[in-house]
Design brief:
Epimerase_deHydtase, three-stranded mixed beta sheet, seven-stranded parallel beta sheet, 12 strands, 351 residues, Rossmann fold, single chain, alpha/beta, NAD(P)_dehydrat-like, oxidoreductase activity, acting on the CH-OH group of donors, NAD or NADP as acceptor, Aldehyde reductase II, oxidoreductase
Length: 351
């Protein structure tokens, strides 16, 4: 990534970048990559005290003063991020509501308010040139193993919105994910509508991660993402239908690749008004189990799932691959490479 052609860089090295959700798995990787390129970064978090470890971690790797924290306890309040992004040439909004609450009347407006609040703060600032939003594959579609279909940059998961507000909303984690997906869908739709209607003086790009696996910066200080937590349950020997169904067949991506895609969406001048699909490759639960068995031969895992239908979805990830190539990544990280780093972290924590 250190060899980005100067002629293609929209934000010169040395200009400040603000990243919300900086203490999370993806947000911290994004901060780390930006710092490695020479950009000062301001991480937006709900609590400076709980995120102090991140300052210490990044300061140990980069020059003191390049990274700082800004505290915004409630991003749903209009103008809450004005001060946090003041002076920033670029903003990456990663922070997400992962409460998995079941009330769409509460969760969906909250996700929209957070997204639109920071976007409007960026638009009215005098310095912000580019804004990147972290969406979700759930805002596009849910996996449908065995079904041939084609997603496009115009595809949105309108069905999940109907389900979230219906009497048929499931309970538990499945229902919570449904409400979350509805919120991410509506928030991204609102963001694009606002952008086209108001034409702010900044470029908007959206990154759409498929289920995102991979190691975190600091396993001692950070929790794992929802996708990684489900993987960990499988690695720990869980044989429940819930875990199997969550991993049965889908596209995936590595957290470092997705983070690099965010950096490209922010910095590359030619990338404008894009929905960048972070879909690396297809996988099934049996692929994952096979890799786990090879990486941890002394552990016992559930048996393979019988008659798994593969994900047959065609996705528009060509532009994303091209962005990664410009940043020095010739290919996406494989499932084997991704899981190897994750299993290494889990094994070290278990010692």
């Amino acid at each position: 990534m250190e060899h980005i052609p100067t002629s293609q860089v929209a934000i010169p090295i040395g200009e400040l970048i603000a990243v919300s959700g900086a203490n999370g798995s993806m947000g911290s990787h994004i901060c780390n990559q930006l710092l490695s390129l020479g950009y000062p970064v301001r991480g937006i978090v709900r609590s400076k005290e709980r995120s102090a470890w991140l300052v210490n971690y990044l300061t140990n790797n980069y020059r003191a003063g390049l990274f700082e924290l800004a505290e915004v306890p409630d991003m749903t309040i209009p103008g809450a991020c004005d001060e946090a992004i003041a002076g920033a040439a670029g903003v990456i909004h990663v922070a997400a509501d992962t409460s998995l609450e079941l009330d769409p009347e509460v969760v969906v407006p909250r996700i929209i308010a957070t997204t639109m609040g920071i976007a409007e703060s960026a638009a009215k600032s005098l310095t912000c040139k580019r804004f990147v939003y972290t969406s979700s594959s759930s805002a596009v579609s849910e996996p449908e193993p065995g079904v041939r279909r084609t997603l496009t940059p115009a595809t949105f998961n309108d069905e999940v919105i109907r389900l979230a507000y219906s009497k048929g909303l499931p309970g538990g984690i499945v229902g919570g994910h449904t409400v979350y997906a509805a919120g991410k869908t509506r928030a991204e739709q609102e963001l694009w509508n606002w952008y086209h209607e108001t034409s702010p003086q900044m470029v908007l790009n959206v990154v759409i991660p498929s289920p995102c696996f991979g190691a975190v910066l600091s396993p001692e200080k950070q929790g794992y993402s929802a996708a990684n937590r489900v993987l960990k349950m499988l690695w720990d020997g869980d044989s429940s239908d819930d875990v199997a169904n969550a991993l049965i067949a889908q596209w995936f991506c590595d957290v470092k690749d997705v983070s690099t895609l965010h950096v490209g969406a922010l910095l590359l001048d030619q990338v404008k008004s894009e929905r960048l699909f972070a879909y690396a490759a297809r996988c099934t639960i049996n692929d994952i189990l096979g890799i786990f068995r090879n990486l941890s031969p002394g552990k016992t895992f559930r048996g393979n799932v019988v008659d798994v239908k593969p994900d047959l979805t065609d996705v528009p990830n060509k532009t994303s691959s091209e962005v990664l190539e410009v940043l020095g990544l010739a290919r996406w990280t494989t499932l084997q490479e991704c899981l190897a780093l994750l299993v290494k972290q889990w094994s070290e924590l278990a010692v």
